[in-house]
Amino acid sequence: MRTEPTSTAEIPRHDELVDERLVRWYLISAALYLAVAMTGGFLMGFQLIRYNPFSGIELLSPGRWRMVHTNGVAYGFIASAFLGMLHWVVPRLTLRPVADKRLSYFIFFAWQVVVLGTVVGLLMGEAQGLEWGETPVWIDPLAQAGLGLVAINFMAPIRHLKGPMYVTLWYFTAAFIWTFLTYAMGNFIPQYFVNGTSAGAVGGLFIHDLVGLFVTPLGWGMMYYFVPIMLKKPIWSHGLSLVGFWGLAFFYPLTGIHHFLYTPIPMFLQYGAVLSTIAVEMVVTTVVVNFFATIKGSLSALKDNMPIRWFYTGMVFYFLTCLQCAFQTTLTFQALIHFSDWVVGHAHMVMYGVFSQWLIGVTVYLLPRIWRTEWYSRRMLEWHYWLSVVGITIMAFDLIVLGLFQGYMWASLAPWSDVIAFSIPWWAIRMIAGTLMFASHLLFMTHMLLTWMKAIAERKAEAAGSAAVAQTA
Ligand code: HEM
Questions:
Q1: Looking at the predicted structure, is the pLDDT value of residue 29 above 50?
Q2: Ligand 1 centroid, distance to 393 Cα (angstroms)
Q3: 60: containing domain
């Protein structure tokens, strides 16, 4: 067993720790999956404004593309980008490589099979009847095994650590265990073991635990790693960071039933979910305070440092989403907004406004380091950021406000067709906002290509320069 390095001479080099090729593959595949997922969002969006470009083609029916959209962002984009980030952060933080490089490559290819198999299965109409667990039943065992292997691969360097563990690793360790358990619970228990309201209760727990116990701990763990490095100062309060971690661990798993208020699920579970959701908002406040106290005195980074700007924008959206959640979880508010577009606005704000912004920030930080060059154009970086932020702000605001109108119209017993007719212009605005977000992403992918080509040209020029020097010598 390896022991802690005792002198700087013993610290392994970056290239011994990090497999940059794998990080790059994950980040690029994540970007490609996001483009496919956004296309799915567009197809569904067109259906809602009564313009379905593929009307009558079963394989391209909007209901199926909707699932490609949601599963594509979750498993294609977000999970892939997280895996790339983990291959960079865990070895650097623990100063040990992952368990086995071959295993890392196996997981990469197995994950492509899971994501592509899910897309094909969904388009063929083989969805599993569980919200967010639509991955076809024949994919589930493979995905479950993949999550187990991911945990083994990354836990190997972490388990050798001695002494206090930095908060990032608390979050990551918990995420490896929780994600494995959450996936098993959501995909197997309602499918094979329970039904009726019990399956509903498990389904609610699964939906929210995917956000709270998979995406959130990886996201915050990542912020605790990158923000201090980029700002070149420690996090404001280590104590507060632990309050955030343990608060999440305690309250988040209890919140799931808030998706199914006013259902036949026992009321004590519903009340428990309402209270713990409000408690999560308090915990979130401590985390956000910690990060804003950290950036105090370095505010110019928000202007000059693009990844920091993406991170803090995501944190503002995070606070807003959780604040919104603390209200929308109450029975009073639920009576108004349940089933309305308020929820869709909320979902986009958290998945795109928060976690995607963080993962894009990480990509903006890592790719030039891996390619050993600067981004091709500062102006393209700015456009990428502003199109994205303006797009999501419009989309979230548009859908949240629309949700309130829909709720009041339903409460006044307005005919369903009137509510649809009222909603269509708002859904059209969503398409405009989506176009900005899509344009932002296509610009980013073009920028990646240009930067990669620039890096190749620089390497060639360097090689030619060295050859010329060698010849003169
Ligand atoms: C390109 C822009 C996008 C458009 C046009 C779009 C459009 C849509 C549409 C039409 C729906 C279905 C809403 C319904 O059934 O009423 C949806 C759902 C959803 N989208 Fe998007 N979307 C876009 C980008 C994204 C991104 C980037 C993410 C996350 C990273 C995302 C996450 C979600 C989620 C989580 C849902 C499910 C919402 C729910 O069930 O409450 N979307 N989107």
A1: yes
A2: 14
A3: 15-163
